[in-house]
Amino acid sequence: MDILWLNQNDVKSVLSMPSAMDVVEKAFKQHGLKKVQMPPKTYLYFDKHNGDLRTMPSFLETQDITGVKIVNVHPDNLKIGLPTVMALVVLNSTKTGAPITIMDGTYLTDIRTGAAGGVAAKYFARPDSKVIGMVGAGNQARTQLLALAQVFDIEQVRITSKVVSHYKEFEKEMEGIVDCELIKTPGVEEVCNCDILVTTTPVRSQVVKSEWVQEGTHISAIGADAKGKQELDSQLLRRAKIVVDDIVQAAHSGEVNVPLLTGVISNEDIYCELGEDIAGIKPGRKSDEEITIFDSTGLAIQDLATANLVYEKAVKRGIGSRLEMF
Q1: SS3 content of the chain, % helix, strand, coil (to 5)
Q2: Which domain, by its residues, includes 103?
Q3: What is the pTM of this model?
Q4: Which end of the chain has fewer CB atoms < 10 Å from its terminal CB, N or C?
Q5: Predicted local confidence at residue 101, as pLDDT
């Protein structure tokens, strides 16, 4: 028996944002219809090294896709030239349990997270949104913008980043991909003057104040993905319609985890899971004045739906290396 190994270049060669958005949206719909098995991600914390390791298993019952992603988050890797997030995805046969493919999940994670932000904005942002505000200019900011560009006619992107080199790299790469004006702003307050606000920072303190956000804004809160992390003013969540990818996981490690713990909001203040809206169970935006927030923690179903897409395309094109298991 052999296993198909796909490195990052293999994954990049077959994975596009439009195709990722399609399978991610379908996976969220299945989640909304309760047709997936997905325990919350588990964490191992390495306090001495300012990092953690996470495991993310799931089973998409309708598509018969199962497996697990193993992913780390180590912010200090920037100092030694390594990615802060690295991942590996394993797909298994539901018939025998045998692994059928192992692939790099680092690029895949960036793409599927961007895809989720784009899908959420498709359902909850104002359709005429043209100005994007971005807090943070790393890899995740790029894929978020790439996904939004699939849905909206973007005219301007306002960006702020503490790391000057990140902005320069962002500008250099995105200028050739998105046809819009890129503007570096001096701070977060100026960025918040937008239609869609995207936050992709690793901070553990609030960087977006409630009074800076105008009515009608849609926010993709991407950075908070572990206990204690928070990017948005807790009072802002009290003004907004809150949509999460998964309630159990978000309550533990998403943007809502701190406001829930401190009692600023309760579970009843969470409007719905994204999949419930996609499945037609809950209506989306009801007016142009609503502030909507998508709390993205990253779900295993996103990874496995995207990994299955990569696997099928790789097999069709004869890409990858075969590894003997026995």
Answers
A1: 40, 25, 35
A2: 2-108+301-324
A3: 0.94
A4: C
A5: 98
The amino acid occupying position 189 is: E
Amino acid at 56: M
Domain shared by 126 and 275, yes or no:
yes
Of the candidates 69, 122, 229, 241, the residue annotated as catalytic is: 69
Kindly write down the DSSP assignment for every residue of 65-80, as one continuous string.
Answer: EEEEEEEEE-GGGGGG
Decide if 266 contacts 260 (C-beta within 8 A): yes
By the 10 Å C-beta count (0-12 exposed, 13-18 middle, 19+ buried), 160 is classed as buried
DSSP assigned state of 208: B
Token pair belonging to 131: 């100005």
- The reported pLDDT for the residue numbered 277 is 97
Q: How far is CA 104 from the centre of its chain?
A: 17
Tokens 């009843």 appear where?
268
Q: Is there a catalytic annotation at residue 79?
A: no
Q: Are residues 128 and 224 in the same domain?
A: yes
Burial 8-34 (b: 16+ CB within 10 A, else e): eebbeebbebebbbebbbbbbbbbbbe
pLDDT per position as a tens digit, 48-76: 999 999 999 999 999 999 999 999 999 89
> Quick check: helix, strand or coil at residue 180?
coil
